[in-house]
Amino acid sequence: MANNTLKYTNARLLAVQAVYAQAQSGEEWNSLISRFLLEEVGGQILDKVGKSEQMITLEPADKELFAKLAQYVRDNGDSLMETVNATLTESVKAGGLDLILISILKVGVAELYVNQDLDTPIIVNEYVDLARAFYDGPEVKIVNAVLDKIAHVLRG
User: pTM for this one?
Assistant: First the structure.
């Protein structure tokens, strides 16, 4: 059985997967959230070892945190993106952000709103770690800078 920290980390990853999947497919949010909660979709990651790739099933996620994050993005996605865009430099905006990075940022900002009891550095670090799972370039620094800046505005 997964420990609580891993359950929360996996809930965050699952929420990022859901945001990404919804943007890619256009599937209705409530249906998509339900399918994730029922574990019909999501909950796997691609593991690359050398030239080999395999799908790995994640340990169970905290469904309550996943639902809070996914529902917050569902209800506030446009305003979350406006908040993110307000923190980006012109050069980053001009370069554009890919969908995975946008998904990480939306869920990260959502958590700053919905998980007020959790210390800001913990939230920021979780999403920086998620970014590292996908990127090894400037995207990790973008996640750190954006979430840190927004957290200072939201939480003081």
Answer: 0.90
Number of separate domains in the chain: 1
Tens-digit pLDDT string for the chain (156 aa):
457 899 999 999 999 999 999 999 999 999 999 988 887 777 777 777 677 787 777 788 999 999 999 999 999 999 999 999 999 988 888 778 999 999 999 999 999 999 999 999 999 999 999 999 999 999 999 999 999 999 999 987
Range of the domain at 145: 4-155
CATH number at residue 93: 1.10.940.10
Output b/e per residue, 125-154; b: 16+ Cβ within 10 A.
ebbbebbeebbeeebbebbbbbbeebbeee
